[in-house]
Amino acid sequence: MTEVSLLTLFFTFFKIGLFTFGGGYAMLPFIQQEVMLNNWIDEASFVNFVGISESSPGPFAINIATFIGMEKGGWLGAALSTLGVVLPSFIVILIVAQFYLKFKESRIVSGVMSGLKPAAVGLIASAVITMVIEVLFPAGFSLGQFAGAQIYVSLAIFALGLFLLLKMKKHPIFIICISAVLGIGAGYLFGL
Fold first, then answer.
1. DSSP state letter for 143
2. Band of the pLDDT at 15, cuts 50, 70, 90?
C-alpha cells in the first residue's frame, strides 16, 4: 500500500463530501473508487471497513472516512479525513438553509431534486452489488465455492437479515447483533 500525505487524505475526503449527494451510502462507490485508485487499502480490507463502519455508532460516511484516515495517517489522518468528509456538507447546508425557503417552489430546484434522487439510489445499488460480490465471491465466481459452507452461511444470514428488517420490522441494531452471533457460531461450527 502507498504512503499518503495528510493533505491528500483531507482533500480526497473533502472532494468525496462535496460531490456526493444522497447520504453516506451514496458516497460508497466514490470512496471505494478513490481508495482503490490510490491503492490505499485492498478490496478485502475495504469490505471490512464498510462492515465496521456500518456496525459502529454514528454516520456511515464519517465512520469510514475516520477508519481509512486512521489506517493511512494515524490519529491526525483520522481527524483530517473526518473533517474533510463533513466540511462540504456543513458549508452547503448553511448556504442552502439561507435560500431554501425562498426557492423551494422553484421548478429548477424541484427538477434538480427529481434528478438527484434516482441517481443516489443507483449509486447505493452499485455499492450493494459490489459488496455482495466481494463478500460472497472474494476470489471470483466459481462452482467450487458452492461446495463449502461459507457461501450458504452468508446467504442464510443475509436472508435472515432481510426477513427481520423488512418483514418483522426489527431494529438494525438487533439484526447486527444477531448476525454477529450467527457469524461467530458459524465460525466455530464450520471453521470459517
1. G
2. very high
